[in-house]
Amino acid sequence: MKTEYLTLSDLFAILKKRIAPILLIAVILATGGFALRALLPAEYSATATFYVRNLQSEQFLEVNGLTSSQLASVQTLAKEYATLAQESDALFDRMIANHALSTSREELRNMLTAATDSTVFTVTATARDTATADAVIAAVEAELPDLIQETAWPGLSGSFPVVILLREAAPATRSTAHPVLWAALFFAGGFLLSYLYFIFCFLFSNRLTDAAEIDRVLPGVPLFGVIPEIEPPADAAEAFFSLRERLPRGERGSAVTLAVTSAIAGEGKSYVIAELARSLATAGHRVLLIDADLRRGAKEVFFMPEAEPGFAEYLSGKVQKPEALVHPTEKVGLSLLPAGIVPVSPCDHPLANRMAALLAVYCKQYDYILADFPAVTEATDAVVCARDFANTVLVAAPNKSGARELRAAAASITAAGGSLLGMVVNTPPKDKKAH
Predict the structure, then answer these.
(1) Are 128 and 43 in contact, with CB atoms under 8 Å apart?
(2) Within the chain, what is the greatest distance between any pair of CA atoms?
(3) H or E element at residue 163
(4) Which helix H or strand E contains 223, and what residues bound it?
(5) What is the distance in angstroms between the CA of the first residue and the CA of the last residue of the chain?
(6) What is the pLDDT of residues 153-204, one digit of tens each?
(7) How far apart are CA 147 and CA 307, in angstroms?
(8) What is d(CA 195, CA 376) in angstroms, rounded to the nearest whole number?
(9) Pick from 255, 274, 225, 259: which is nearest to 383 by CA?
(10) DSSP 8-class letter at 273
(11) Contact 424, 396 (CB under 8 A)
(12) What CA–CA distance (Å, rounded) separates 338 from 343?
């Protein structure tokens, strides 16, 4: 999960961010619901209500020569008569014969439904038109009481009807929802379901879409800065001003060391560290930028694309003196230790020891030493060297970073003894290649 809890502001943020697809889904479902209901035939219903009289008084038993064991409770009788109204072939035959209904037994069986409530039961006739519904329920009103009296209680006096029509059926009305109502219900259902889907995605999807979501993934790691997208010819230094000001200050004669990496490749870490180095140099600091990403590299954003020798030559032993690796750039105060061009596998060299040796040499010469490492999922370089740097920054990019990868990267760095200064959320400029 991206977060263990949802706040009210989260719910509003999800709704605001996803309102367009939510409304689109709701409108599509509403249109489908309207069309479906419009294509289906409408149905009309009429309902008659009957009352079952109490047959258990002492006077009634005495007059009719009955015993209490011969009589069921009124509630039970109401259920029996309701069932009779739905299933009795004798009732259906009487209705067809006496009321000239142009329907069969099976059709009547499908039209009629009944329900009971204590001593009252209702019978509903449903048909495709009002005339048929009215005719069928009128036949039920006329034939059902007589059928019950004749078949269930043939010995009772006709002056004591067991079932009485309590309420006549009103003219049949439409029983199926109007297409507009279906559209409204489908719209509401689509809106709710799509909203719940996006809430589910917010909680459980690995994808991170903005700085707020990235920040929630690692609550123990501060959000150190958010770099907005910058279009040329705007000056990128402005975007890095607040990030630069939040960096720790070093003691005189000792540089602040900062390793920059990301969970996965393509999140713009090289762009972030290059512009941060430029911003520090603009503020008058002496800055050394180390391109320690020997697997991928980002020469096009590191001021001197063809500079050599570099870190690779140092690791391979071709260059022994660290002083020979540093190259001045066109930016006053900013020096570059490039990746170099000699093919070398960092796995074949004691990377951590060599990096520590470099830092020991340069710490007294610069105010800030920034190192660009490969993504943690690509290589272990940043993890291996984590203890050599006082601070490590994770760069994450919306729609590229994954929650699982980001957590794993942070855990690997801290487990190796590194100190996570924070995260930087980066949206790289369109004219810059992300590294």
Answers:
(1) yes
(2) 126
(3) strand 163-167
(4) strand 223-227
(5) 27
(6) 877 766 778 899 999 999 999 988 889 999 999 999 999 999 999 999 888 8
(7) 107
(8) 34
(9) 259
(10) H
(11) yes
(12) 14
Residue 419: CB atoms within 10 A of its CB come to 13
pLDDT digits (tens, 9 = 90+) for 341-394: 766 565 556 676 788 888 888 998 999 999 999 899 888 888 888 889 999 999
Q: Is the dihedral of CA 417, 421, 422, 423 positive or negative?
A: negative
Tokens of 406: 């980001």
Helix (H, G, I), strand (E, B) or coil at 248: coil
pLDDT in tens, 69-111: 555 577 788 999 999 999 999 999 999 999 999 999 999 999 9
pLDDT of residue 234: 54
Cβ-count burial 120-155 (b if 16+ within 10 Å, e if not): bbbbbbbbeeeebbbbbbbbbbebbbebbbeeebee
Q: How many CB atoms lie within 10 A of CB 402?
A: 18
The alpha carbon of 284 is separated from its chain's Cα centroid by a whole number of angstroms, namely 47
Q: Set out the domains of the chain in order of their start, with CATH numbers.
A: 8-39+178-204 (no CATH), 44-174 (3.30.1890.10), 211-426 (3.40.50.300)
Query: For residue 268, what are the CA distances in angstroms to 75, 260, 290, 403?
Result: 77, 10, 16, 17
CB 159 within 8 A of CB 60: no
Sequence-distant (6+) residues with CB within 8 A of 175 are 43, 44, 45, 126
Q: Report whether 262 contacts 394 (CB < 8 A).
A: yes
Query: Rounded to the nearest 10 degrees, how much is the dihedral formed by the CA atoms of 12, 17, 21, 27?
Result: 40
Q: What are phi and psi of 308, to 5 degrees?
A: -155, 160
Tokens 């999140």 sit at which residue? 267
Q: Which of 121, 116, 97 is nearest to 108 (CA)?
A: 97
Which helix (H) or strand (E) element contains residue 352? Answer: helix 351-362
Tokens of 391: 């601070």
3-state secondary structure of 286: coil
CB 108 within 8 A of CB 97: no
Q: What token pair was written down for 191?
A: 């809106």
**CA separation (Å) from 55 to 28, 64, 144, 146, 152?**
58, 10, 18, 17, 13
Place of tokens 């203890």: 387
Amino acid at 362: Y
Return the structure tokens found at 84.
């009779």
- Angle between the N-to-C axes of helices 74-87 and 130-151, in degrees from 0 to 180, rounded to the nearest 10: 130
